[in-house]
């Protein structure tokens, strides 16, 4: 019965328009009332405990690094570098979008921010070159969701805190799956772009490619510093986030000189707003997580899926299908915070590697960012690129299928994630 109370109270609150954070708190209060243990101190203590985590300090600094990167000209130079390298290939601007998305993902870790930067620059260029605009917008949206999978990733930080899993190991485990998502998009793009009668850009001379590489060198050095420092054990993910923000500010203000002192209050305020939303969600979710454990909801769910406990692959398929459905209605962070405390005890009981599951779970949640009706990244690319949402949904279909196929492949062959992750650890 506690499972029914949990689901009914959470979905009922969201159905009448209650913000997700308050819906999570309402769900926790309802469970407390049902179990006869209502105590306002439990709510306050769990919310404070949810925010009082050193690891979560990485979130505001990675958010700030992403804002500084876009305002300081780092994003634009990465795109120019990609155009110089692969713009001359057939369908080159699409490959530029994917290549730039992967590079930017290794810097900011924000799907919405990366998508906005790519859409603002590349959609007008692709339209002018004769590419199908809805399909181009769909490609850019699909490339944007690679950001939370390739480190540094705020989604991995939130999951790591909620599931008590090593964030460093999650970061290292996300590299190969993120690259596979990019490769899948390149293959899908090369198949569908044949329908567009476009001419590739002229091949950039070697001198121009070198010049573009030189201009982007400072931006390209950022992921090397972040991932290299974490892998070498020199810095923790939280310390890497601080370095990333400081580096982005230095490059934007001193090297590229596009970030002015007068821009800093606006950039910091935007980063603070984004951080406050994420942190409030985390705090509210900790209340529900505590009650989920106290009510033994994972135990109730385990009874329903007990026949699958000894069949990990089938269990993963069922869970991935569940997350995919939930992801169509919820944003990335709420999905992580709601489902992680419910699913992790089941995953541990089934003997599935928590790091592997974390990567698969985040990949699945990211796919939800480009699925209607919510599809946060769909709305970003529609608004920034000025493409009707319905047309973006149509254009995204082949790339959505490509990402789902990657997910299925990794469920069938978990070694693709586990083996490289163990080596990188």
Automatic annotation (TrEMBL):
Localization (cell): Cell inner membrane
* Main localisation: membrane
Pfam families xref list:
DctM (PF06808)
Which keywords has UniProt assigned to this entry?
A: Cell inner membrane, Cell membrane, Membrane, Transmembrane, Transmembrane helix, Transport
Cross-referenced InterPro entries: DctM, TRAP_DctM
Q: Which part of the chain is the TRAP C4-dicarboxylate transport system permease DctM subunit domain?
A: 8-416
Q: How does it sit in the membrane?
A: Multi-pass membrane protein
| Transmembrane region(s) | 47-66, 78-103, 109-127, 139-163, 169-193, 214-234, 240-256, 277-297, 317-343, 355-376, 396-419
Looking up NCBIfam families in the UniProt record yields: dctM
Q: Which family does it belong to?
A: Belongs to the TRAP transporter large permease family.
Q: What does this protein do?
A: Part of the tripartite ATP-independent periplasmic (TRAP) transport system.
Instruction: Share what the entry says about its subunit structure, partners included.
Output: The complex comprises the extracytoplasmic solute receptor protein and the two transmembrane proteins.
Please identify the protein, giving its name as recorded: TRAP transporter large permease protein
Organism equals: Rhizobium rosettiformans
